[in-house]
Amino acid sequence: MKITVIGSGYVGLVTGACLSEHGNDVLCLDLDPRKIEMLQRGEIPIYEPGLEEIVQRNAAAGRLRFTTDIAESVAHGTVQFIAVGTPPDEDGSADLQYVLAAARNIARHMTDYKVVVDKSTVPVGTADKVRDAIDDSLRERGVALPFSVVSNPEFLKEGAAVEDFMKPDRIVVGADDERAIHIMRSIYQPFQRNHDRTLVMDVRSAELTKYAANAMLATRISFMNELANLAEVLGADIELVRRGIGSDPRIGYSFLYPGVGYGGSCFPKDVKALCRSAQENGMDLRVLTAVEEANDAQKLRLVQKVVARFGEQLAGKRFALWGLAFKPRTDDMREAPSLVIIDELLKRGATVCAFDPVAAKEARRILGERIDYATSPMGALDGADALLVVTEWKEFQAPDFERVKALLKQPVIIDGRNLFDPQTVKAYGFDYDAIGRR
Ligand SMILES: NC(=O)c1ccc[n+]([C@@H]2O[C@H](COP(=O)([O-])OP(=O)(O)OC[C@H]3O[C@@H](n4cnc5c(N)ncnc54)[C@H](O)[C@@H]3O)[C@@H](O)[C@H]2O)c1
Fold it and tell me: What does the mean pLDDT of the chain come to?
């Protein structure tokens, strides 16, 4: 099938690459010429495990191409996936300008039937806006052409995006016309040969499903973060509590890890946008409002622990940070807790040396030279007053503690991801503090 993907970021590029892997003829559009030039050279602008091989293999086979030419991209695919960003607007609502611009571009150039698929995360009612935008543009052109609008939210996780796309838990298709549903089913059929995992529903329910999923996951995180803070006060160990509740099949073990708060390009903005949608409809989502407040507070938890040890003023103190990305296996720094932590430490006069296996380049783009960047975990420790663990990269899990101790000025570890066993670390002579651990 001929498919166009509009927006070649984390979602668009993975979508395009994985669809081409199953034999489709895919053209990816982006308005950022630098990104497209890189992709045309076979370079991947983002870090995503397994993506490079798929992109290079399918580009070499001629099934995956990249362009900045809107007319060419519209002419190419009967199916046009919109996978552009939907960042938060000033009032917290999802900014739909990129989605609607993409829709209008399709309408300005189309000459035959198109299935326009919203893959971006968009508020309920967006498919109607997309339909109106296309209708208006077609009317301006004085033409009447058939098209369908489908909601097909994406559930991939950065760091495991290729795997998630190739083996989806579910494929949500929100559509109300049979022609589009049939086309969507045939696109996704190769991804679910074992058993059908497509959930066809009305468009509004599909749009809400994506927000509901992210809101639920964010809720679990904030719930555990607050409980961890309480465990510290009460002298309980959150790790034991986590196991105690996770073993209940109604609860399950996933997403029960306390830490320094959720970040990334999705949870923060999606929680905000859902709250905003509710407000616009005269409702308050009280649980979710609290989830967001708890998360903002949690991003400061590590700094509170630093202040409790070293005092409010941190001039002359140096901190080693392990991890900058908002989670492991990605270089995405959007809304990363590390940014809040670094900001607070610098404000108090401290200096920071950070190491991240893949996100240093992206961090440097955002933070410039406000902090130092190490090229190894141990390199960050030299002369630091404490090690702060911010992202749970696997390679941080079993360090040479003797060396860590020798490099640090003081044997202090403040672990924002509960990476280490408190007994083990203490046996090495560290002053160890974590989130909700005894
Ligand atoms: N990143 C994730 O893990 C993830 C997961 C599920 C859903 N989503 C959702 O998918 C959407 C895209 O997210 P992302 O992380 O891939 O964003 P991104 O910022 O990485 O990529 C968006 C791309 O769209 C391009 N673009 C913007 N307007 C365009 C236009 N009119 N035509 C062509 N290209 C255009 C931008 O240049 C950019 O390269 C968002 O709505 C997001 O919420 C993201």
Answer: 97
